[in-house]
């Protein structure tokens, strides 16, 4: 065995031991679709995700030009991936034969939390990566890069997440009722939760370093997609030129990445995305309703008031308002 491989296997062993020790000692709670979530430095994470986080801190090498997309689960990741990828790679594809016409946006750039992040990482220049980790759990090599964060009304996030996770349950884990999911969500116990801590971690960082973090809201993107697309392009240091504006490139990108367009593509009706050896998601699952306010079909007035009350309380004084009340 070469010295290099010996060092590598020693690193792997250390990481596995550290992970085992953590899982045995940190608090655990209801796992929604898996046995348990674990509270790692204030956030509820699946064991495999904690392992990826350890890996990120010990072994991941960023490049200063990398751009990261961060989000709480079900806040608009797929949409942002499509938009960021199309903006960055706009010289590489025509709209009649675009990568996104044949591939799900999730495949457009690697997901740090579960995949081997280096696979496929040279696909875009600059490299694009996505994560659901809160800002406080990212290694400095990532927080020193440019980062786009998208947030969404937590009530819509809850409903979207509940639908999604119930379809992806481990063996022997019974379905979670909406009522149970709601209670856990309000207690902060959900994958990557508490949602308020997640959002605040990026909000505070964006106030400190606006040139490093672009903070977006799903609802504002729905209302004015072209405005947000221009913001994204400028932030990623690839602003649209006058010629591109004249030829309607912004509108073309908005249309290509729209919910209706992506959802109706053959690849997103039939294909599937393999995130790891065990996690496979049918592409159509990333396109459920794509609406603002679907929570109204699921949550009672009392439930709405409870979530809004918790969010107002937790975000109080931060200057951030989420969802319909913004
Ligand atoms: P992820 O956390 O698994 O990556 P993510 O893409 O963040 O999922 O969120 C999925 C939500 O975004 C779905 O919301 P819903 O369940 O309320 O419908 C999905 O429909 C919505 N979505 C996906 N693509 C788009 C899009 N192009 N425009 C608007 N919403 C979208």
Question: Could you give a quick summary of the protein structure above?
Answer:
By secondary structure, the chain is of the alpha/beta class. 45% of the residues lie in helices and 11% in strands.
Structural features, described:
The chain is α/β, with parallel strands linked by helices and 326 residues long. It has one domain: 3-Layer(aba) Sandwich (Rossmann fold), CATH 3.40.50. Helices cover 45% and strands 11% of the residues. The chain contains 15 helices and nine strands. Strands 5-4-6-7 form a four-stranded parallel sheet, sandwiched between helices. Strand 2 and strand 3 form a beta hairpin. The N and C termini lie far apart (59 Å). The structure holds 3'-phosphate-adenosine-5'-diphosphate (PAP). The site of 3'-phosphate-adenosine-5'-diphosphate has 20 residues, from helix 3, helix 6 and helix 13.
Order of helices and strands: HEEEHEHHEHEHHHEHHHHHHEEH
Helix content: 40-55%
Spatial order of the strands forming the largest sheet: 5-4-6-7
- Class by alpha and beta content: alpha/beta
Q: Note the main sheet.
A: 4 strands, parallel
Strand content: 5-15%
Give the number of DSSP strands.
9
CATH class: Alpha Beta
How would you sum up the global shape?
A: globular
Number of domains: 1
Named once each, the bound ligands are: 3'-phosphate-adenosine-5'-diphosphate
Tell me the quaternary state.
single chain
Radius of gyration: 20 Å
As residue ranges, the low-confidence spans are none
User: What's the pLDDT, averaged over the residues?
Assistant: 93
CATH superfamily: P-loop containing nucleotide triphosphate hydrolases
Compute the separation of the termini in Å: 59 Å
């Amino acid at each position: 065995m070469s010295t290099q491989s010996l060092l590598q296997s020693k690193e792997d062993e250390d990481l596995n031991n550290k992970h085992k020790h953590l899982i045995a000692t940190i608090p655990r709670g209801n796992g929604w679709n898996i046995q348990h979530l674990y509270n790692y430095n204030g956030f509820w994470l699946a064991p495999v995700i904690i392992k990826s986080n350890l890996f990120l801190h010990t072994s991941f090498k960023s490049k200063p030009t990398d751009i990261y997309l961060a989000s709480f689960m079900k806040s608009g990741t797929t949409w942002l991936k499509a938009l960021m990828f199309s903006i960055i790679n706009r010289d590489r594809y025509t709209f009649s034969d675009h990568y996104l016409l044949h591939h799900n946006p999730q495949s457009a750039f690697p997901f740090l939390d579960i995949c081997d992040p280096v696979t496929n990482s040279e696909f875009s220049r600059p490299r694009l990566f996505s994560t659901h980790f809160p800002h406080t759990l990212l290694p400095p090599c990532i927080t020193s890069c440019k980062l786009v964060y998208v947030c969404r009304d937590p009530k819509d996030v809850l409903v979207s997440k509940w639908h999604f996770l119930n379809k992806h349950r481990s063996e022997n884990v019974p379905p979670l009722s909406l009522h149970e999911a709601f209670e856990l969500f309000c207690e902060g116990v959900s994958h990557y939760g508490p949602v308020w801590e997640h959002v605040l971690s990026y909000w505070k960082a964006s106030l400190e370093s606006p040139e490093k973090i672009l903070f977006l809201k799903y609802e504002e993107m729905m209302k004015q997609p072209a405005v947000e697309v221009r913001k994204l392009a400028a932030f990623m240091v690839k602003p649209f030129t006058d010629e591109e504006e004249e030829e309607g490139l912004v509108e073309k990108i908005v249309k290509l990445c729209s919910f209706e367009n992506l959802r109706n593509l053959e690849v997103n009706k039939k294909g599937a995305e393999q995130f790891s050896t065990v996690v496979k998601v049918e592409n159509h699952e990333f396109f459920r309703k794509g609406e603002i306010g679907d929570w109204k079909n699921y949550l009672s007035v009392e439930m709405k008031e409870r979530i809004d009350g918790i969010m107002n309380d937790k975000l109080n004084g931060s200057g951030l308002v989420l969802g319909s009340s913004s």
